[in-house]
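My current task is to audit a protein record that another person submitted. I need someone to confirm that the token line plausibly describes how this chain folds. Take the sequence as given and treat only the tokens as open to question. This is what I was given:
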Amino acid sequence: MIISNVNGLEIGFERRGQGPPLVLLHGYPLDHSIWHEVAGLLGSSFDVVLPDLRGFGQSAAPQDEYGMTEMAADIAGLLDQLGMERAAIAGHSMGGYVALAFARAYPERISGLGLVSSQAVADSAEGRERRFATARQVAAEGLGFIADSMPEKLSADPRVQALCAEIIHQQRPAGIVGALKAMAGRADATGSLPSFSFPVSILHGDGDALIPAERAAEMKAAIPHARLTDFPQGGHMLMLENPPATADALRLLG
């Protein structure tokens, strides 16, 4: 793990492989380690960068509020540190929201976009309130209840559930709270999708219990040249449930 000062914030990341740059962004409430097996499969095709998003893993957890724009700026700053002018950005779930924010803010710096178990639409009013309520509960009680309840929503695979529970337990309440508020406040990116001229790979599991597969179909309809890869019976954690197929779909970004 390398720790770099990015825009005044400590960001932890791993780097492996060789080839064109590919940044893999993890989802909530996890860290970069969910990508380890896929990164190993892609190392012969890409220079793979695995950051911990702010608030997670080895990255700093700011106390002030922030949004997807700031999280995308962290990635742009990390690319600057690494001397990478452009990169393909692939994000899982919340990481997909950050990838979309990056594509909107830095279109000249993105060479390809991967959206894994993610969506372009913003939260509904009810969804935002649920996130704020969860943030309040984490601030008051800690994140134990998330580690206990969320893994079964992430995957039906007991092995994946156990791994996710372990990763969630390692996170910090401040990072969980910050991410929940950032997701609640994110902008709807649907209107930007037709302007994406770079390669786009969309991956979604038919059994995803958190984000319905219809969201992937909607993004594909808005981006005609995008490649949509369906995972029959796949849950929310495709990179852990089926690493080879996930890696194959992301190779389209090279």
